TrEMBL record:
Lineage: Bacteria, Bacillati, Bacillota, Clostridia, Lachnospirales
Pfam families: Phage_base_V, Phage_GPD
Span of domain Gp5/Type VI secretion system Vgr protein OB-fold: 304-365
InterPro entries: Gp5/Vgr_OB
UniProt organism field: Lacrimispora sp. BS-2
Name the UniProt record assigns to this protein: Contractile injection system protein, VgrG/Pvc8 family
Organism superkingdom: Bacteria
Gene3D superfamilies on file: 2.30.110.50, Baseplate protein-like domains (3.55.50.10)
Amino acid sequence: MESITRNNHQNDKSAITYKDMFLGSVGVVYFRRIKITEKAGEHASLYVEAVLDSDTNENDLHEIKDSVSLMYRKEGKEHVLFYGVVDKVFMNKDGGEWLIRLEARDGTCQMDVERRKRIFQNPQMSVRQLISKVMDSYSGSDHMVHLPAEPVGQLLVQYEETDWEFLRRFLSKYKENLYPDPAFPDIRFEAGLSPKPENQNWDKLPYKLSQDFIRLESMKENGIHELTRSQNTVYQIESYDIVSIGSQITYKGTPWYIESAERRLRDGLLKNCYCLRQKESLKVLPYYNGNITGISIDGNIASVKRSQVQVNMEIEAGDGEKYWFPFSTVAASSDGSGWYCMPENGESVRVYFPIDDEKEAYVVTNVKGQKPQAGNSSDSMGNPNHRNIQTAQGNQVQMTGEGVLIKAGNGQGSIFLKKSGEVVLDAQKDITILAAENLNITAKKDLTVKSQTSIQVSCGSGADIEVKKGTVGLHGSEIHEN
């Protein structure tokens, strides 16, 4: 780490003083300490230590609301400096004074409470649509998206993640971050860096200049190869101006962005310490959700196309097109040979996630969920020594200790290849044997042909032999008898 310091001065007439500030729901005589911390990707925090009104008593602790607003007056108008949710509050009496210590986080902390499981299947959903879908459950919230208006292009899975964790990880795919806005009286954040520069002139302010070589090498080794030493430079500037993190500032003729801000009450004035980085240095390395590695999510087949399937899943969110998953077959090769046996619509399957990157998911078969009826002797799962392949249309191949049985149409026709060498053909209607040339039937012993009504042997020239009950008829232009 290397740093350089340069000192100048700023007119303190524009500063916010301790007299200008007040807590929205707590009567404060004066503030002893104020500290606001804002950083990219994290919830903003507030720490306040103040002296309360003289008529305060210990019962007032129970009247303090679970939300807090730190405000200031300037030129006759009230402005919000911090609005958030109270985490901790302490009251104690020091001599004749009541003191309050209060800790709070901005509204985005409400997105970081409940862990959810949901799947966004539509690859045509845009980045803005995805973020809006996540934020639908937060009434009164606001957000700005500074990312390209393009489809997400892949399967997205929120698994055992809070909404805040999920959006942070999602934005890392674009090497961007979340920037909370604690001055908004509800949940508000910006996704990505603001493209519009703020009207601030900080060129003559005091600053510290630093360079983090360890961070530089880490980012270059992990995908941000184009980052240079000059782009990795950090300016630390102290100002009385109130500017949000993620904002663009033109500093010394070059665009810079505010990565973090720390606001403190010192000498009765609110002083803001900003860290400025260039856009390339604020890129985030993509990362994944390790919780998903090795899990399977149940579903059923919605559609099949070649070696891909679409799946209905219980925890899916969003509307529109479904994602096409690859289906794991028993055996396959690049030339198309091997096993091709796709599941049917409605069939139960599992979506399997082999690694922490959800776009590598594929579909595998599920445990058969059929429950046999009482007294059903045709239960295909009744004997574990039998191997059975069956379709919803009633077609079946069953391998047993006696041989191989092939059925069609729920037993309308079957072929039984017995282990003894016997072959049995059975049909509820016709059996048709066609040969383009010759058909040879040979038996080393007996050849038996039986019929309940008649047997007819004929050829295309019009000759035939017809056997009926008790009679044999010979028909032809010539009949030779030896």
